[in-house]
Amino acid sequence: MYYKSASCIFLASFCGQQTNAFTADKGRPMMNERNDSGRQAESGPCAGLRVIEISTMVSGPFAGQLLGDLGAEVIKIETTSGDPMRANQPSYDGMSAYFSLFNRNKQSICVDLKSEEGRSIAADLIAGADVVLENFRPGTMERLGLGYETLRKDNPGLIYAGLSGFGTDGPYKDKPAYDHVIQAMSGAMSVMGSPDNPVPIHHIIADKVASIMTCNAILAALLHRERSGGAGQKVSTSLMKAYAAFLMPDLLNNHMFQTKEVHKIPNIKIHHPLRVKDGSVMGHVQLDHQFQALCKIFGREDLIEDKRYNSPWARIVNYADFWKELEEPASRMMKAELIALADEHGIPLAPVNTVEEFMEDPQAVYSGCFIDTEDPEFGQMRTSGFFADFETSRPSVRMRAPKLGEHTREVLEALGRTEEQIEAARKAGTIG
């Protein structure tokens, strides 16, 4: 068993040996050196924690990856057919890029949870874990005999995190949900476009937001466990509620004051790319001195006293007209020339990059927005960096995403299963 007391977890998390994640000032970050066992040494503020992830696609796996980046040991339980994301393209030698980008720093074990032995394996793993993370529809884990009330009997310190489409209760709890569905119902598409021409964000943003918020909720529950004598709890998040919490702080401005009459503002489009000779730039001039400097750069000092633009709120209301005034002088300038002038005057302005251009941006390289790892099977692989920098307990990329069932035998041996038991389970189709 892998059960650790709350105090031991605390010591392992905050007092264990740490390794540097990468060196960002020597070019693009690379993976840590391996230890003698061939696996990266754990590092990060969550080192010493064990997470059992039973999830597929994006929302659950990305949350598990974040915990893995923070140093937790993450064991991903997959069906013998694997996470459906493994089938996405592009891929190389059976490794899907999409799957890889959401599943690094994990071990994979193939288990048939519909079998008695498969459920027993999962229960044994969870009995020694700190966190279990799942993104099934509500009730699925209970039907498998792996619901929170069952699991907590053998592991009272367990943090059980369930991430669903609409939550564990309510009229929509049994409905399926994907990113597009949540974007549609949230109201944001009519703001991105208009009620007559709704426009989605062309990324799986609702899933990724829910992942980050689920990770936050798990970390908060772990902190509570340390402060409450080791008591675990169930944490529930949903795509709908997480995305609403992310969106609504700036979409509720016309609905904030429910009992008072206030002037409501229209849907103002403040994002206006500006064409230059060799591409586009975009910026935001919030402060008066930024506005005045920008007018001077373009030789449009006449706009400085224009009542449509000479205050922050006036500019916001008339942003479309303001940027249109600058189109002609901008068309005679190059990106590098304009960015240099903007930097000189402290104006927030940036080139509109392609993804390839952003990957070569000096600040993106220096900050570790992308990490290159060298794998003996798949060669050099590029993945996204972690979003926060820690002074001492740094996050790290220790392992590429696992091949399907790559660690099944290793994990089962650590659980105490004999060679005969492992082979019998494999022949029975219980493990893959």
Question: Could you characterize what this model shows?
Answer:
This protein has 432 residues and is an alpha/beta fold. The chain has 2 domains: 302 residues, 3-Layer(aba) Sandwich (Rossmann fold), CATH 3.40.50; 86 residues, 2-Layer Sandwich (formyl-coa transferase, domain 3), CATH 3.30.1540.10. Helix content is 36%, strand content 14%. It contains 19 helices and 13 strands. It is elongated. The N terminus is likely disordered.
Q: For the record, what is the CATH homologous superfamily label of the largest domain?
A: Crotonobetainyl-coa:carnitine coa-transferase, domain 1
> Over all CA atoms, what is the radius of gyration?
25 Å
Q: Report the structural category.
A: alpha/beta
Largest sheet: 6 strands, parallel
- Residue share in β-strands: 5-15%
Total number of domains: 2
Average pLDDT score: 89
- State the end-to-end CA separation: 22 Å
Shape: elongated
Low-confidence stretches: 1-39
CATH fold label of the largest domain:
Rossmann fold
* Spatial order of the strands forming the largest sheet: 5-2-1-6-7-8
State the name of the first-level CATH class of the largest domain.
Alpha Beta
SS field, number of helical segments: 19
Gross CATH architecture of the largest domain: 3-Layer(aba) Sandwich
Task: State the helical fraction.
Answer: 25-40%
Oligomeric nature of the chains = single chain
In short:
This protein has 432 residues and is of the alpha/beta class. It has 19 helices and 13 strands. Residues 1-39 have low confidence and may be disordered.
